[in-house]
Amino acid sequence: MNIIIVKNYNDMSRKAAHLFVGQILQKPDSVLGLATGSTPVGLYTELIKFYKEGMIDFNDVQAFNLDEYLELKPSHEQSYAYFMQKNLFEHINIRPENYHIPSGTANYQEKECERYEALIAEAGGIDLQILGIGRNGHIGFNEPDIKFEAITHVVQLDEQTINDNARFFDNIDDVPKTAISMGIKTIMQSRGIILLASGIEKADAVAGMIGGKITPELPASVLQLHPNVTIIVDEAAASKIPSKNI
Ligand code: F6R
């Protein structure tokens, strides 16, 4: 694991954006794995700036999002499809046929998972995957005790995840309890991974991911086994990493 500790959220976002820009310059038809939530918003803002300055072109880029809530239509303001439009896609020249998010409203959810996994394989796999981390150590929506062999599948969200996501909804009862998520195996098949974490509330999960035992109880700990992972964390999120690991 390549661990980069930066001062704050903005520095984390800029550093991650530089790595993404490098990836796209090196391979203009890169397949990117994208995430939602608060963590990557600054990265997306930086990427939009680089695009507007003419430094990168998304015309040949393909993108696959990690996850989507079940039962939210893409037009729902809290769906991840809506989030991606507002925070990235509508500001850049990525082609609509080139970005993919699991459908939360597909009639046959298992079939949708198979379709999504096959689409990633058809694209040649993911070159660079961005990840956030949940306070419980989840990546994507792979909650504690997930099987490391899981591919894209339907997940029940953890109580902690539902509570954490309640901040985006008017009422905690409105937070979806289920989602479709790439599995740990799907994520581990990415050729490169960048995980971002900011803030003291992520410090325990980050410390466990880097310095703890590799265990499904802390899904992100599996990243210790990936040959090309860069962890970019701000000082608060890094504050509990054992010194032997830095
Ligand atoms: C989002 C995702 C989640 C988030 C994680 C952290 O697509 O898959 O794993 O990355 O829940 O969320 P934030 O960034 O809101 O703290």
Overview of the structural elements:
31% of the residues lie in helices and 17% in strands. It contains 8 helices and 10 strands. It has helices spanning 9-26, 41-52, 80-87, 109-122, 159-165, 184-188, 203-211, 235-238, and strands spanning 2-6, 31-34, 62-65, 67-69, 99-100, 128-131, 153-156, 178-181, 192-197, 229-234. The strands form 2 sheets. Strands 1-10-9-6-2-3-5 form a 7-stranded parallel beta sheet. It has a 3-stranded antiparallel beta sheet with strand order 4-8-7, covered by helices on one side. The chain is globular, with a radius of gyration of 17 Å. Bound molecules: fructose -6-phosphate. Fructose -6-phosphate (F6R) is lined by residues 35-39, 66-67, 132-134, 138-141.
Q: Which features would summarize this protein structure in a list?
A:
246 residues, alpha/beta, seven-stranded parallel sheet, three-stranded antiparallel sheet, 17% strand, globular, binds fructose -6-phosphate
Could you provide a short overview of the structure?
By secondary structure, this protein is of the alpha/beta class. The chain has helices at residues 9-26, 41-52, 80-87, 109-122, 159-165, 184-188, 203-211, 235-238, and strands at 2-6, 31-34, 62-65, 67-69, 99-100, 128-131, 153-156, 178-181, 192-197, 229-234.
Distance between the termini: 10 Å
Q: Label the overall shape.
A: globular
Averaged pLDDT? 97
Q: Could you state the order of secondary-structure elements as H and E?
A: EHEHEEHEHEEHEHEHEH
Percentage of residues in strands = 15-25%
Radius of gyration: 17 Å
Specify the structural class. Answer: alpha/beta
**Residue share in helices?**
25-40%
Query: Major beta sheet, specifics?
Result: 7 strands, parallel
**Ligand list:** fructose -6-phosphate
Uncertain runs with pLDDT below 50, 5 residues or more?
A: none
* Quaternary form: single chain
Number of strands: 10
Major sheet: order of its strands? Answer: 1-10-9-6-2-3-5
Number of helices: 8
